[in-house]
Structures are given as structure tokens and as C-alpha cells.
């Protein structure tokens, strides 16, 4: 079956511009996570959606970052007024049930470069 | 804040050698996962360990969760070039919802 997909795969933008990153999770998965991975580093948690519950936004680094999940499926991560330090790979993952050791299925990521 | 450390940061070995990588924390985790990530792809789950002292084997890979559930190790026997990648450990946080990831061990197995 189809896995988690993300678009675009690569995005180059100028400092100060807004960007939108999209994640299509596996159908039926109730949990959706966004992470950021800087070059050669581990994953930094950004935000977590679980069903219809209010999202856990505790990992968002600043108010320039926001995310939505429409209809419990597709999610969009928006970064406003991008800065060079926002350059990273943004990974999305979905899971049939959040936490509790359930497997997270990751997408291939969006590589964001802010020039 | 719960943090995970991994060691070594980099490891380069010859095909056929054995290796162990470590994941350590001062915090207790209710469960811990190991992932492998290849360039240009997202991480792929290898194993989940839940019980302190638990040992799981996956072919040539052996995973152990520390008795106190603060640390874990991954041992690879007779490494192969296909084992090359970034190995990440991730601990389930105290709220049972989010995973804290370590910085990873980058393994290179040379033929």
C-alpha cells in the first residue's frame, strides 16, 4: 500500500518568504508527527496530531511555525518569514495509534534550504 | 527535559566485524525504539523494547533495554555493507505521546 508522502521533496526559498510543506499520511492512521532534522543530526519533535484532539505544539521553535491537519488526514506545516536557521529536512510520520511504542511510518522528508 | 545520547557518533568498520552502539539517558523511558535511516529517506523502525532488561534479536541485530529503562544497546554481528546508515534511538516521553530522538550513530560498513 501507499506509504507516507511529502511534498515538495526539495524547496529552496529566500530569507523572509513563507513556505508550506505538505504531508499525506497513511490512510486510517490517527496520529501524525512533524520533525525537523538538521544535517547529520537526530530528529527534533515539532508537533503531534492525534485524532480530533488539540495538537501538541510544544516542539514548535517559534511563532513563525504553525501546522494544520484537515479532516484528520493531510497536514500542512507553514513557516512564515523563513530564516537561514530554518534550513533542514522536515520529516512527517504517521502512526495507527500515537505513542505507546506504536511504529511511526516516516515519509521521505522535504529538504528546505533558505538562502 | 528528557534527552538521549548516542555513542559513538561515527563508526567505520570492515565487513564481517561485530559492533555495538549505545543509547543513554539520565531519564527513564517507558519504551524505546531503534530506527535506521538511509540517505534521502525517512527512518525505518527496527525494534521496540518495553520491559527493563528485555533482549530482542532480529537476525544479526541484538537489542537490549537496560534494567532501569534508561539505556539501550544495539549489537550487530558480522556487519554487512547493507547495514550502513544512521541508527537512531527514540524514547517515549513521560506523557506517553511523543518520542525523544537521540542524535544518532552513523555507521559505515566497508566491503
Indicate the topology.
The complex is a heterodimer of chains A (115) and B (111).
Chain A: E1 5-7, E2 10-13, E3 19-24, E4 31-37, E5 43-50, E6 65-69, E7 75-79, E8 88-95, E9 105-106, E10 110-114
Parallel strand pairs in A: 2-10
Antiparallel strand pairs in A: 1-3, 3-7, 4-5, 4-8, 6-7, 8-9, 8-10
Chain B: E1 5-7, E2 10-14, E3 19-24, E4 32-37, E5 44-49, E6 55-58, E7 61-65, E8 71-76, E9 85-92, E10 99-101, E11 105-110
Parallel strand pairs in B: 2-11
Antiparallel strand pairs in B: 1-3, 3-8, 4-5, 4-9, 6-7, 7-8, 9-10, 9-11
Distance between the termini of chain A: 37 Å
**In angstroms, what is the radius of gyration of chain B?**
13 Å
Number of strands of chain A: 10
Poorly predicted spans of chain B: none
Show the largest interface.
Answer: A-B, 26 and 27 residues
Short recap of the structure:
Chain A is mainly beta. Chain A contains no helices and 10 strands.
Please tell me about this protein's structure.
The complex is a heterodimer of chains A (115) and B (111). Chain A is mainly β. Chain A has no helices and ten strands. In chain A, strands 2, 4, 5, 8, 9 and 10 form a six-stranded mixed β-sheet that branches. Chain A has a four-stranded antiparallel β-sheet with strand order 1-3-7-6, with no helix packed on it. In chain A, a hairpin with a 5-residue loop joins strand 4 and strand 5. With 111 residues, chain B is an all-beta fold. The relative contact order of chain B is 0.33. Chains A and B meet through strand 5 of A and strand 5, strand 9 and strand 10 of B.
